Amino acid sequence: MQGTSDARQTMESQDELHGGVVRQRGNVMGKNIQEQNNGSNETTPEPNKELSPTSSKGSSVVLILLLLMVGITWGIAATAYFGVVDYKVLVARSSSISTSDMTSCMSLIYPTNYPFVRRPLKTFGSLLIDIDESLYNLFIAKEQASYIDKRRSVAMVTPYNRITFSIKETEKVVTERGEPPVMSQDNQPSKEGETTNENMKTADKDERDNTLKQTEGKVKVKDTAQDPTKSKNSTPKKTKKPTTKTTDGTVPKKKKNPPDPLTSEKDIPILKQLREAEKLLKSKQAAKAKAAYQKLVSSNPESPMARFGKAESLFQQAEQERSNKLLQECIQAYNEVAELATCPPALKKKALLTKAERQTFLGHLRAALLTKTQLARDFPNDEKVLNQLGVAYLMIGQNDKAKQVFETVLDIHPGDGFALVHLGFIIKIKGDWMKSIEYLLPGVTSLEEGTQEGKFYFHLGDALYRTNRTKEADEIYKLGAERGLFRSKFQRSLYNVERLQSRPFWTPQQAKVVDYVKKLEKNWKTIRDEALKMMDVKKGLFVNEDENLRNTGEWRQFTLYQRGKKDAACSRVPKTCSILEQMPNAVGCTRGQVKYSIMMPGTHIWPHTGPTNCRLRMHLGLVIPTTGDGVRLRCADDIRTWEEGKVLIFDDSFEHEVWQQADTFRLILIVDVWHPDITKREKRTLTPI
CA-to-CA distance for 579 and 560, rounded, in angstroms? Predict the structure, then answer.
């Protein structure tokens, strides 16, 4: 009994090593041995003494034990293979037991004096371990094959370089595609790749959903984990943008839009109605807009914006109906805006500037000057107001006062481009070319509003040329042409009709003045003789050229027609004027002149251009000296000379220059005619020059 007790204790101490299978074996065997010992009082037989094989009771016990062990073993194998029992843990424990350990265990359970039992059990123990190892290898092979199949199925529906395979949710992506679980040398999953069957199923499902999101060359795994408490159709919460904090940790207050400087407190209650009226104005419905604004003025007489809108609608209606009466009402409406006590300063300035602009449009230059003078008193340091006042003085010919205003602007705002170009223009007209460049050049290059006009490039280039800076002058002219201020480097007229064809020299046929040329050339001696009678300098009929175009020498003119109007001087040369009256496109040219021109020897005329491309200029040679170096005319880059009794036609909108280097005077008749492409309507409507 003592041996049996020791054997039972030894068996129980080995249960943790053998697992559930060994525990079952020991319990069954121990019970049978105990029953045998309790049922017999005989002493233990000697080892070399054989028992009778005919004992039916011993044979039955052995057979039952064998059948029971086989059934248990195969039952475990079947359940493990089909995933019912986690066989890996069981085999992990039992596979570490060697055959000798199993035999020793059996010898402790079963007495050594029963060799008929021990030998079969020893053989069966070895067989059991072999079966265990075979089943484990089979299980591992099955798991690896399943993993490869699943990996291949995912790869078939997803691009290879956009897939990552993950066994655990915490697995990190270290390459562009994931790696399979890392296996140890004994074919056991390492701790890093270890997982259970349940987790393996979850991981297999997740493998189909995890994708790589490539951004800027980095691989990111799309997280497909979902909160089980949320439904599939639940809408994700909007994430709030991080709040920017100041250096002291406080959240800065949201900036409010600055108030409209044109809006008064009296306008706020009717802002909606003002916007609706403004929409009508923008859609060119002037009459409806005027009615809407008038209604607002009647109900809100102190609203500056309502009155300003009324003035704007009146101007739009005046344009549409071409009505000077409406334009006068418009000017009065702007004045009412400025006189309101509730009018904001910004709106008052805008209203008065617009009023002065409308007055200038009507030709009321003195009235516009008074309006701008009022503005200058209210805004004495506003450069825009002062600049407009200077322009108003220029328009009425008070250049000295304009000069003072622009100098005041530069004292308050040094470097103001608008004041620079206008002050340079005034100085250049006075003849101080060097000083004018000091203002014109920085003013033009400032590119400020109001500085990119052809006249400033024109006078800057002219001043540079007259101070022997010819290359710089040429660059300024080129720059003006590139910026669209001139038609070309040579054609620098400022009052143009763009569609007109242009060339430096023209034939009578091209200019469509064949009849005019014939009349002039046929009567050239009559025209000459009347001119020679008028050449008495003492009578003062021939006056000096007043456009400051003469470089050296003497150049005088005797005008007969100007801006389409006949001059009183025609009474002194009646025959000539009677011939000219037969040329309506000449005497009726509001952008031209008809005059005698006399030039003394040693005269040089600076390169210059006429003001417009709407005319062509005919020169009839009356007295043309041929002595000395003669007389020459350059137009663009073509140089020609005159002939007595012949007409020379050129386009004076191109740069032209004259040299008189003969021994006696040169006398010609200048006759301007309309450009052949000018229409009858344009002849009536173009502003006279």
Answer: 12
Terminal-to-terminal C-alpha distance of the chain: 146
CB 526 within 8 A of CB 573: no
Give the number of residues written for the chain.
689
Q: Give the containing element (helix H, strand E) for 275.
A: helix 271-282
Question: Could you tell me if 178 and 164 are in contact, meaning their C-beta atoms sit under 8 angstroms apart?
Answer: yes
Q: State the pLDDT at residue 253.
A: 57
Distance CA 112, CA 118 (A): 7
Alpha carbons 654 and 509: distance in angstroms, whole number = 20
The pair phi, psi for residue 615, each rounded to 5°, is -135, 160
SS (HEC) of 460-492: HHHHHHHCCCHHHHHHHHHHHHHCCCCCCCCEC
Q: What angle do CA 186, 191, 194 make, to 5 degrees?
A: 85
Q: Scanning the structure block, which residue is given the tokens 């300024």?
A: 476
The pLDDT of residue 243: 54
**Dihedral sign from CA coordinates of 33, 35, 38, 39:** negative
* Structure confidence by residue, pLDDT tens digits, 517-533: 999 999 999 999 999 99
pLDDT tens digit sequence for 469-489: 999 999 999 999 999 999 999
> Which amino acid, residue 408?
T
- Per cent of the chain over pLDDT 90 is 59
pTM beyond 0.85 = no
Q: How far apart are CA 278 and CA 103, in angstroms?
A: 108
CB of 115 within 8 A of CB of 107?
A: no
- DSSP helix/strand/coil, 608: strand
Structural tokens at position 599: 């030039």
Please give the backbone phi and psi of residue 414, each rounded to the nearest 5 degrees, phi first. -60, 140
Q: At what angle do helices 417-429 and 433-445 cross, to 10 degrees?
A: 160
φ/ψ bin of 50: left (φ > 0), alpha (ψ from -120 to 50), beta (otherwise): beta
Residue given tokens 């100085």 in the structure block: 427
User: What is the distance between the alpha carbons of residues 126 and 120, in angstroms, rounded to a whole number?
Assistant: 10
Identify whether the C-beta of residue 22 lies closer than 8 Å to the C-beta of residue 16: no
Of 223-227, 416-420, 667-671, the range with the lowest mean pLDDT is 223-227
Q: How far is CA 470 from CA 54, 474, 476, 477, in A?
A: 143, 6, 10, 11
Strand-pair partners of 489 = none
Q: What is the largest CA-CA distance in the chain?
A: 182
Sign of CA dihedral 289, 295, 298, 299: negative
Q: What pLDDT is recorded for position 66?
A: 75
Strand partners, 671: 594, 618
252-276 mean pLDDT: 81
Instruction: Compute the average pLDDT of residues 399-408.
Output: 97
CB count, 10 Å around CB of 50? 10
Two tokens, residue 659: 């040299």
Classify 293 as helix, strand or coil: helix
CA gap 3, 537 in Å, rounded:
165
Q: Say if CB 616 and CB 512 are below 8 A apart.
A: no
CA distances from 455 to 35, 391, 492, 609 (A): 134, 14, 9, 12
CA distances from 180 to 144, 148, 183, 189 (A): 10, 9, 9, 11
At 360, is the pLDDT very low, low, confident or very high (cuts 50, 70, 90)? very high
CA 114/CA 46 separation, integer angstroms? 11
Please choose, from the candidates 562, 576, 457, the residue with its C-alpha nearest in 3D space to the C-alpha of residue 528: 576
Distance of CA 291 to the CA centre of its chain: 41
